[in-house]
Amino acid sequence: MSTITIKQLAQELNLSAGTVSKALKDSHEISAETKKRVREMAKDLDYVPNPYASSLRRRKSKTIAVVLPDIADSFFSAAIKGIETVAQDKGYHVLVYLTHELSYKECSILNDFKSGRVDGVLISVSRETTENHHVNELQANGIPVVFFDRVLPEINTAKVVTNDFEAARIATKHLIEKGCHRIAYLSFSRTLSISMDRLEGYKQALCDAGMEHAIDVVFCCNDEDENNRLIKEALSRQSKPDGILASAESLTIVAYHVCHEMGIKIPDDIKIVSFSNLATALILNPSLTTISQPAFEMGESAALLLFKSLEKNNFVLEGEQIVIPSVLMERQSTACSGVPGTELNA
Amino acid sequence: MSTITIKQLAQELNLSAGTVSKALKDSHEISAETKKRVREMAKDLDYVPNPYASSLRRRKSKTIAVVLPDIADSFFSAAIKGIETVAQDKGYHVLVYLTHELSYKECSILNDFKSGRVDGVLISVSRETTENHHVNELQANGIPVVFFDRVLPEINTAKVVTNDFEAARIATKHLIEKGCHRIAYLSFSRTLSISMDRLEGYKQALCDAGMEHAIDVVFCCNDEDENNRLIKEALSRQSKPDGILASAESLTIVAYHVCHEMGIKIPDDIKIVSFSNLATALILNPSLTTISQPAFEMGESAALLLFKSLEKNNFVLEGEQIVIPSVLMERQSTACSGVPGTELNA
């Protein structure tokens, strides 16, 4: 790193460190001529202010943390892109932490932030997380937290989510309208609020259609092989599903593999809708009907809220809630037999 | 952030700040009993050492930066996952910066690092980058840099790459063996070394088969619509390609869309191979033959090299080069007409 300290710079200039510091901050107390001398010498000596020294003075790190379960997922990678774009504009730095869906990792990561490493935190909690204390402690330490997508409902702070209940209801209704009678919901969590909201939306659509009896939830997990087994089991049942609502693209990819393997034809034998932002949805075999989440916009909005709270002392995050709706993109995986695809409209 | 300073902690304990600091560092100069008292009081008062204060003392930030073009790409998201896993083990923090393929952004990002914000840098350069000075300056400031995937060949430091020349040669040979006579190479850069290495491998395979005359390179860009236009143009030619080697999955996705739109059948009318790590390669329409890059391993190895140089003063990065080979995964997009797919072997 740059080895020139402000003291050395001051020596070279025959000025006090305080004067040099003020000059570099363009203080009105310093003459234009002195400022010029200081700036030139700073440039010649390639002086760069030490960010940690100034963080210490300002008690600000100009750094935010993004804590999320996974990055190899089209939703989260797009969300980070949205966050990073805002941060670059604001001149902030972005630390990225992956919990790999483990709540103990999430706790230890957040615990470290109490030290003041970051000015604020954007988080989408792990599949396992049910406790609030790790987030509460952070807030108690005066570090603002904004949730995006996967929230902890009890915690009173800003949240940026999509309309999970309504999107799942619409997707399920879509499957019913396409003639499905036994729709399975592939869930990735028994506790996560968005997963539960989607479950409720799914149930609502079945009730609205007088199909309460047909509620069929397959709770999947973190392990791909186990999910493969669970889905294969569901599709081997006597009265197997003729429709699937998948709560995560990773589960949809497994479901496609299982169908290909078992010779179950999509959409003729089974129709599939998935929460997903896959760039390849349109060119899958068959093209996938998705509930496309506004991933980039959700990351962007969450970051904007956090920076607002960092820049405006009077702005309170409590109670702020932004809901950005998802969109159903109808494609071949839910087409009626013999009906041409809708790729080009999608 | 935690408001208890080491001074306040010392006051509470009626000890000197120095003694407390040594006790927390488990120094042999301090009695077991005192250490116990200090640790207990630190716990009671929820004392957390300020990372910037210790960074300043140690001149170490325990933070590394990962600079890359994009994150919504299966290669880079998997690579970050590899990097992040190693960093978590080592107790380091990971700052992620996206250049969005713009070299001026890359320069300003690296310039900021001179301040000592990070102890080391992992970088995969932007499509535009041809200059070395921004990386040289960083090294001159004593900040170690390790390249992964997209390297600057002239810079003498550790590089972790895949066998781009050989992988492209094998993929092109594969297309020739499947009966392609006019193979187009979709390139994403006119300057980037890996893109050029792949181009050379492609040319080599054509020469080996006595097909020098058939060299056909389509240089694509950053803009998806423009790439769509370029590929459509290539596939509308009198003697249009019957094979495609795509240097990036983003170009393959566009090529699939164009083929679907123009009614060009894959693999009957045209066969496609792509450098890609798409999780959905196997369920595309048709399943995609890929050159699968060891993305996670490349990120992991690059991070391990960087930490080695940070932890061992005597370890020099210069001259270190790790090549992790890519693997050709043969699937339906290059199958001979009427030949059953190889999904299950893939």
Automatic annotation (TrEMBL), chains A, B:
<dbReference type="InterPro" id="IPR028082">
    <property type="entry name" value="Peripla_BP_I"/>
</dbReference>
<keyword id="KW-0805">Transcription regulation</keyword>
<keyword id="KW-0804">Transcription</keyword>
<dbReference type="InterPro" id="IPR000843">
    <property type="entry name" value="HTH_LacI"/>
</dbReference>
<dbReference type="InterPro" id="IPR001761">
    <property type="entry name" value="Peripla_BP/Lac1_sug-bd_dom"/>
</dbReference>
<feature type="domain" description="HTH lacI-type">
    <location>
        <begin position="4"/>
        <end position="58"/>
    </location>
</feature>
<dbReference type="InterPro" id="IPR010982">
    <property type="entry name" value="Lambda_DNA-bd_dom_sf"/>
</dbReference>
<dbReference type="Pfam" id="PF00532">
    <property type="entry name" value="Peripla_BP_1"/>
</dbReference>
<dbReference type="GO" id="GO:0003677">
    <property type="term" value="F:DNA binding"/>
</dbReference>
<keyword id="KW-0238">DNA-binding</keyword>
<dbReference type="Pfam" id="PF00356">
    <property type="entry name" value="LacI"/>
</dbReference>
<protein>
    <submittedName>
        <fullName>LacI family DNA-binding transcriptional regulator</fullName>
    </submittedName>
</protein>
